[in-house]
Design goal:
One of its GO terms (molecular function) is ATP binding. The protein contains 14 helices and five strands. It is mostly helical. It has two domains: 211 residues, HUPs (Rossmann fold, 3-Layer(aba) Sandwich), CATH 3.40.50.620; 83 residues, Tyrosyl-Transfer RNA Synthetase (Orthogonal Bundle), CATH 1.10.240. The strands form two sheets. It has a three-stranded parallel sheet. Helix 9 links the parallel strand 4 and strand 5. The chain binds tryptophan. The site of tryptophan (TRP) has 13 residues, from strand 1 and helix 8.
């Protein structure tokens, strides 16, 4: 990949979990050395469906998660969405470039409306959050967005807005972008079926204690027909193997385990033991760094303040170009 500008972020509705790690954090970690990366704490977007006190509290939590996994503030611009008013202003103008019908067809929004049981009582801000997401991405002229698979429709909608705006402007002011989605697909919860998510209550947080990790692995679904060790076992749909695929770097080792398990003679406790070691190893340093960082929240807020100031400068430049294209530059 040539050098990209990257904009990505997370709604601050709760701390991050293993699903985020596999879905986007790993890609962001890989990108921070080669690209210009903006990481946004999407507190304003979180307000479209979450109480403000929860959103406020989780700005620091998600920031701690970013720093604890190793996203380096010297390499990334980490900032708070609501503190960049240029994004709201861009959203306002972009709102005229989409129809309500198109927003209602957005598969992610549609699914969330169903899950939250909004029926017709959808907050307008919630329905329109893909538009604010288009503003987030285009404000930074981002050409790549590392996100989980569920966010792909947001990128599609962003590109539609970009094309419509550029056509109206008569020149290519905004840039089209692409989603960078991991090949592995979304991580399930311990039952191996439902996706891991905060709302499902099946998530293992990146700050999980050793005991929480043990309990999580214990609770994992394997194969209900694998009753005796010598019975042949199913690998597909087996949550432990899905997790081993995601977290065990030695692929041939996992292949061997799978072969033995299929044949019969490999106990669930053995594969769970392997997985538990991997997860403990992964989370321990994250948890420790997080505990250390959490001792000095003022330092974390200072990082966010500096990042937000940088982000504002970039977003302001794009906003000025957009307003000028819309002939909203009366005094310049
Ligand atoms: N929608 C994302 C989430 O639910 C957060 C987000 C807001 C985002 N704006 C973005 C992600 C721009 C990528 C790019 O977590």
């Amino acid at each position: 990949m040539t050098s990209h500008i990257i904009l990505t972020g997370d709604r601050t509705t709760g701390p991050l979990h293993l699903g985020h790690f596999v879905g986007s954090l790993q890609n962001r970690l890989a990108f921070q050395d080669k690209h210009t990366q903006f990481l946004m704490l999407a507190d304003a977007q979180a307000l479209t469906d979450t109480d403000h006190d929860v959103v406020h509290r989780n700005v620091l939590e998600v920031a701690l998660d970013y720093l604890a996994v190793g996203l380096d503030p010297a390499k990334n611009t980490i900032f708070i969405q609501s503190q960049v008013p240029e994004l709201s202003e861009l959203t306002y103008y972009f709102m005229n470039l989409v129809t309500v019908a198109r927003l209602e067809r957005n598969p992610t929004v549609k699914e969330e409306i169903r899950q939250k049981n909004f029926q017709r009582d959808i907050p307008a801000g919630f329905l329109a959050y893909p538009v604010s997401q288009a503003a987030d991405i285009t404000a930074f002229k981002a050409t790549a967005v590392p996100v989980g698979a569920d966010q792909a429709p947001m990128i599609e909608q962003t590109n539609e807005i970009v094309r419509r705006f550029n056509t109206q402007a008569g020149k290519d002011i905004l840039l089209e972008t692409r989603a960078i989605i991991p090949q592995t697909g979304r991580l399930p919860g311990p039952d191996g079926k439902a996706k891991m998510s905060k709302s499902q209550g099946n998530a293992l947080h990146l700050s999980a204690s050793p005991d929480e990790i043990t309990q999580f692995v214990k609770s994992m679904y394997t194969d209900s027909k694998h009753l005796k060790i010598n019975d042949p076992g199913q690998v597909s749909g087996n949550a432990v193997f899905t997790f081993l695929d995601a977290f065990e770097p030695d692929i041939s080792f996992v292949d061997d385990l799978k072969a033995k398990y299929r044949k019969g003679g490999l106990a669930d406790s053995v594969i769970k033991q392997h997985l538990e070691v991997r997860l403990q190893e992964l989370i321990e340093p994250i948890r420790n760094r997080r505990l250390e960082l959490a001792k000095d929240p003022a330092h974390v807020m200072q990082i966010l303040k500096a990042g937000t100031a940088r982000a504002r400068t970039v977003a302001a430049t794009t906003l000025a170009e957009v307003k000028s294209a819309l002939e909203l530059d009366y005094f310049s």
